[in-house]
Design goal:
With 116 residues, the protein is mainly beta. The chain contains 1 helix and 8 strands, in the order αββββββββ.
Length: 116
């Protein structure tokens, strides 16, 4: 089990360093059923400490149109992806070593997501 976790973490770390990164995350509560999609806009390699452009979309339930679309920057530090929207109203965190502990903040509202 530990070996599978380590291999998965290494694979995700390698994937995070490739251009065109996309994360698809599901809300952890069964009530809302939201989906968060974080997509890299540029085709540059993601490097630690260098901000990259991303688009964040949030879908409610089975809706085909997102309820929220915002552009911003992702900064990386070790195993953490930190998204901040251009207007500073939305932020998201994804931990590559704990993909089930992702979060989205909209104003004062925080929502947990699982990116496994």
């Amino acid at each position: 089990m530990k070996t599978a976790f380590l291999i998965g973490t290494l694979l995700l770390s390698v994937t995070a360093n490739a251009a065109g990164v996309k994360y698809i995350c599901k809300e952890t509560t069964e009530y809302q059923k939201q989906t968060l999609i974080l997509t890299q806009v540029t085709d540059r390699e993601i490097k630690e400490g260098v901000k990259e452009r991303f688009v964040l979309e949030v879908y409610q339930g089975y809706e085909k149109e997102p309820r929220l679309v915002t552009k911003g920057y992702v900064s990386t530090e070790d195993v953490m992806f930190s998204f901040k929207s251009d207007d500073k109203l939305v932020s998201a965190m994804i931990y590559l070593d704990e993909l089930d502990q992702a979060s989205l903040s909209e104003g004062r509202k925080d929502t947990g997501f699982d990116c496994n």
